[in-house]
What does this fold into?
Amino acid sequence: MNPIKEVNGIIFERKAIKTRLFNFGDDLLKAVEDYVLPQKQEGDWLAISEKVVSVCQNNVRHIDTVKAGFLAKTIVKFVKKYPNDIGYSRAEKMQVAVEMAGRIRMVLAIILGSLAKVVGIKGVFWMVAGNRVSEIDGFNPDAMWPYTEYAILPPKNPEQLCNEIEQKLKLPTVIIDGNNINVKIISMSKSVPVDEKLARLSLLDNPMGQDDEMTPFILVHKNV
It folds into this structure.
């Protein structure tokens, strides 16, 4: 990870925080207190991987509980494939999305998304599907065990969690959905010193190690 990121002439320093492997149901606030606070400096804010949030919330699905149906198997044939990210190329992961969004909504998303692509508009499928299905992670054979066997669902009450960390630990916090394709800000606490756009750009190279790097926390400092 490059610790320095320049955005529009602003220099951001990013420090990756090494942790242990988190187990399902672990105490996230205690983890932040133990691993992050000892390295925090004045003016820092924290970026947390949504994956570790959901793991600590035990908000996951084991692959044995998922049986990919005809609709999920059909949709994955048309989803864009990426050479460096599993994305939605696995039918079991799409099945979880179908169950979260509902079959009718997913069919509508296919139709409208396909029509939009014809005229060069991207992202309509995920917008119509809604229900935060684009945030689902997991069933990735390249991930660390046991995460290979789990779908990681979108964090519950992310805004509330960010504000809780800020209030209890005096640390402005954002939760991000980061991968090798894109980075999305899921939620921010009230006192993060940058807006959502700048927060995203400061992390757009996805500096967070979410697998064997075990660095799901990033302390970010905006130089002034």
User: Anything to note?
Assistant: The radius of gyration is 18 Å. The mean pLDDT is 90. The chain has eight helices and nine strands.
